[in-house]
Amino acid sequence: MELSGIASYLISFLTFAGVYAVLALGLNMQWGFTGQFNIGIAGFFAVGAYTSAILTTPSSPAYLGGFGMPFLIGLAGAVIASTLLGLVVGLITARLRTDYLAIASIGIAEMVRLFVKNEDWLTNGVRGIAGIERPFADTVLDSPLTYLVIVALFVVGVYFLVERAYASPWGRVLRAIRENEPATAAAGKSIAGFRLQAFVLGSAIMGLGGGLYAHFFGFLSPEAFMPLYGTFLVWVMLIAGGSGNNRGAILGAVLVWGVWSGTELLTGLLPTEYATQGAAMRVLLIGVLLQVILVTRPEGVLPEKPPKLIARKR
Q1: Rg of the chain over CA atoms, in angstroms?
Q2: CA–CA separation, 249 vs 271, rounded Å?
Q3: FRET label pair with 269: which of 50, 67, 235, 244, CA 20 to 30 Å apart?
Q4: Are 232 and 145 in contact, with CB atoms under 8 Å apart?
Q5: Residue 69 belongs to some domain of the structure
């Protein structure tokens, strides 16, 4: 029983880490590549999760749904919905500088969360959406291990696409905008256009992470998309792993989620009267960890390494 419990915990841990790795890769597309300070990750995370849930759950009189679509259709809907939201937000904020973009994006994320919380006809409000099935439901493949494999495949696929984008001429323009925007504009590149493209693609990846989360957890409520879980942790993961490095984003997701999960186990051992203080100490510990990383390794565990340019033979 002990071995099976440990195995179940590891599967759950790795699955959650995989979902957060997808979110971190999406943020890396925005911040690591282009320097866009998006603090509204939770909004795109929520849109992706709720879209996939609405498309795939059975009919219910409590909220919009009953489409009963397959798992992949739900994920596709999550990506499309987050892409559209990212396009709207990007068109509004593409020309904003880092601090103004941060203020605008966190405001939009809170608008999304409050909309999800109050529009009962669409999302069932604070009561949430339950019964979100995993793929291969009611078959021999319906197991947490199977879903871990699915999440791992999506992480690998997103990593491959983002890594190719990073090494492409398009990715070089994004890094040039991040490092020297005036020089990039002088070279004839559309700063707003490239910023918008990176923002929309990053938002789409975050929506995919939301869809994967919904089908793993099986239940959605607005509390799951508070800034602490949907934004702060993702930022810590990317900074700890290495901003601008896709491998660092994945490694940071695993390491920080390991610290977060480990502190949950430790606080569970505290007496009941200290449970509230223990929860606050978890957040404090993550904040201290972030400060230590910024002081000792400001570039993260895996610093960014721009791809080498291969000289063409004449």
Answers
A1: 20
A2: 35
A3: 235
A4: no
A5: yes
**Total domains present in the chain:** 1
pLDDT one-digit tens code per residue, 232-282:
999 999 999 999 999 999 999 999 999 998 887 777 677 776 666 777 778
List all residues 6 or more positions away from 175 whose beta carbon is below 8 Å from its beta carbon.
Answer: 33, 34, 244, 306
Question: Hey, which residues does 219 pair with through a beta bridge?
Answer: 130
Q: Which domain holds residue 41?
A: 12-225
Q: Is the dihedral of CA 92, 95, 98, 99 positive or negative?
A: negative
SS3 33: helix
Q: Which two tokens stand for residue 285?
A: 């510990």
Q: How far apart are CA 116 and CA 110, in angstroms?
A: 10
Q: Which residues contact 118 (CB under 8 A, 6 or more apart)?
A: 125
Give helix 144-167 / helix 169-179 axis angle, nearest 10°: 80
CB contact at 8 A, 134 and 147: yes
Question: If you search the block for the tokens 């969360």, which residue do you land on?
Answer: 113
pTM of the model: 0.93
In our burial notation (b when 16+ CB lie closer than 10 A, e otherwise), range 293-311 reads beeeeeebbbebeeeeeee
Q: How many CB atoms lie within 10 A of CB 205?
A: 28
| pLDDT tens, residue by residue, 184-221 | 999 999 999 999 999 999 999 999 999 999 999 999 99
Q: Does some domain include residue 109?
A: yes
